[in-house]
Amino acid sequence: MLLMRETSEETTARTLAEPVTVPAGQAGAIRVLRGQLLRITAQEDGAVASLFGFSLTDPAVWLSVHHTRVFSNSYLLGSGMRLVNNRRRPVMVLGKDSVKRHDLLLPASTSAFLAGRGYQGQGSLEAVRGELTRLGMAVPKLPDPINLFMHVRLTRAGDILPEPNLTRAGDSITCRVVMDTQFIVSACNTGIEGNDRPAPLLLSIAENLHDFTAE
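The structure assignment produced for this chain is given below.
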């Protein structure tokens, strides 16, 4: 089972981060230890979660959408897929997924990009930088995110076509994390047609699936 807890020799108590609500137009952070489950839940219709992750022991090691595509030989994110870091080592494994539509191609929005398209509010990059500052984390760069719940498709001609976002309130993904990681998730406007209605997100952690409380 993808989300079953691996046998561990750990005997010390493990901390479990409290759930985090990420308001629309902002970013939030949650610390996840190796072996724990991360669940990201849409709180309203049309949500997009731009996901970033940095190793707790070395911020120069980050969740890499580029290496994930190459490692899996796919631009589609599916059940059982390993999301890897810039050292090509697994960070997490995708298990339960009620949406099954995610983007591994597009960069994060910026405030300048949004303003140029007539939107108000901060971009994902600015929101994530602000969250890193709040956490006191210095990272060498901000990589492109994994855009969970974003609906786009790639044509045979190579065109990236945005499609109407079909995510509904309560939809979620659940991953088993295999590396101690500080995750940062943006609920900012993507500026991508059909996926441009920011919605709040809930980040929650559990040791096992049955430990998740009702959301």
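Interim note for the steering committee: The first helix runs from residue 65 to 72. The radius of gyration is 16 Å.
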